[in-house]
Design brief:
It is built from seven helices and 23 strands. The protein is of the alpha/beta class and about 325 residues long. The strands form seven sheets. The chain has a five-stranded parallel beta sheet with strand order 6-3-2-10-22, covered by helices on one side. Strand 13, helix 5 and strand 14 form a beta-alpha-beta unit. The protein binds flavin-adenine dinucleotide (FAD).
């Protein structure tokens, strides 16, 4: 059981900055995220896009903002449970919450801050009837650890940056024994540089590229052994494979949090704007995941919400103590 002061569900920009604000009040945080890396939408959807409305930064790449937030929170040593969605929550007799993930990891704290943004990013799966039977037996929708593909035959499907970049990565570093990229069109949506690189690597034989085709079937005894690729002109081709990695993007949904007894409106959690508390005392909702009158889904608004929520959380945990606001310029950063 991981014990902390505040369990933060969602390691997006808002969850990360909340670690910093909580740290100033000497409250420890542990973040849970279903994605394998921190950063939420900034890391998953637009890491290379410049953001122009972060105070003090005329322009900053979303990925850089996350790197900076990680550096800013580091003195407060947050814990991370990554690659695991928070599934259930129960209240203990002594008014704490136990949050359990899909993998059974348990966390306990008196405060839960939901910074779940648009929700859990669920993979878009190809319409193959028996696909679920092979999940984690050769089928993965996110590449968490490229080393599992060492010396394996990998079929990647997709036409965006993820499919292109991972094909290049696994082939260029000679991690996979074979990299086969299948895409239903002959044009790609990814960066031109990456497209050119895949074409060059196809010519050199490092990648096998099959365009105008889709993976339509999979099979194998205990784990994946082959995929069936249906080509628009040439028909079906059987391709031996240890892994099939469809990288068709992720779609967000509020997911299990919607069943936690919180007041939900339009797929978001209703909060009191006094302190961003929810209808359950001890549970707060900050950032894109909450809703209230005049809500703006902006990073800077989420930073403000997290800042006020931890002040209220402090009073909830230490009702006997009075918290006096201290400027960081005066007190500096007293890490843990
Ligand atoms: C293309 C694009 C451009 C944008 N440009 C700007 C801009 O210029 N300026 C601006 O201010 N905003 C911009 N935004 C919006 C901004 O990205 C969001 O407001 C911000 O990411 C919200 O941060 P968050 O931390 O609340 O949520 P998110 O970034 O969505 O992070 C939430 C995290 O919670 C996780 N999560 C959810 N449910 C669970 C669960 N049950 N268990 C575990 N983990 C869970 C998710 O995996 C995710 O990582 C843009 C958004 C997009 C898509």
């Amino acid at each position: 059981m991981i014990e902390t002061d505040i369990i933060i569900i969602g390691a997006g920009p808002v969850g990360l900055f909340t670690v910093f604000e909580a740290g100033l009040l000497k409250l420890k945080c542990h973040l849970i995220d279903s994605l394998p890396q921190a950063g939420g939408q900034c890391s998953e959807i637009y890491p290379k896009k410049p953001i122009y409305d972060i105070p003090g930064f005329p322009s900053i790449l979303a990925g850089e903002l996350i790197a900076n937030l990680m550096e800013q929170t580091a003195p407060f040593k947050p814990g991370f449970t990554l690659g695991e969605a928070a599934l259930s929550i129960i209240k203990t007799e002594d008014n704490k919450f136990i949050v359990t993930t899909v993998k059974g990891t348990q966390h306990i704290a008196p405060i839960v801050m939901i910074a779940g943004g648009l929700g859990v990013f669920e993979p878009r799966k190809p319409p193959i009837a028996n696909i679920e039977a092979y999940e984690d037996k050769g089928i993965e929708y996110i590449i968490k650890d490229p080393e599992i593909y060492r010396n394996k035959r990998c079929v990647i499907a997709g036409g965006g940056d993820s499919a292109l970049d991972w094909s290049i990565y696994l082939a260029e570093r000679k991690i996979a024994k074979e990299v086969i990229l299948v895409h239903r069109s002959s044009s790609f949506r990814g960066h031109l540089d990456s497209v050119q690189k895949v074409i060059d690597m196809t010519e050199s034989g490092a990648i096998r590229l099959i365009t105008e085709a889709e993976v339509t079937g999979i099979g194998g005894a205990d784990s994946l052994e082959f995929v069936t690729v249906t080509h628009q002109k040439d028909g079906e081709i059987k391709v031996n494979a240890d892994h099939f990695i469809p990288l068709f993007g992720l779609k967000p949904s509020l997911g299990p949090i919607a069943q936690w007894g919180l007041e939900i409106e339009k797929n978001a959690i209703k909060v009191n704007t006094l302190d961003y508390s929810t209808n359950i005392p001890g549970i707060y909702a900050i950032g894109d995941v909450n809703t209230y009158e005049n809500k703006l889904k902006l990073i800077l608004c989420g930073f403000h919400e997290g800042t006020l929520a931890v002040q209220s959380a402090f009073a909830h945990i230490h009702p006997e103590k009075k918290n006096v606001l201290k400027y960081t310029t005066v007190n500096g950063i007293q890490g843990f």
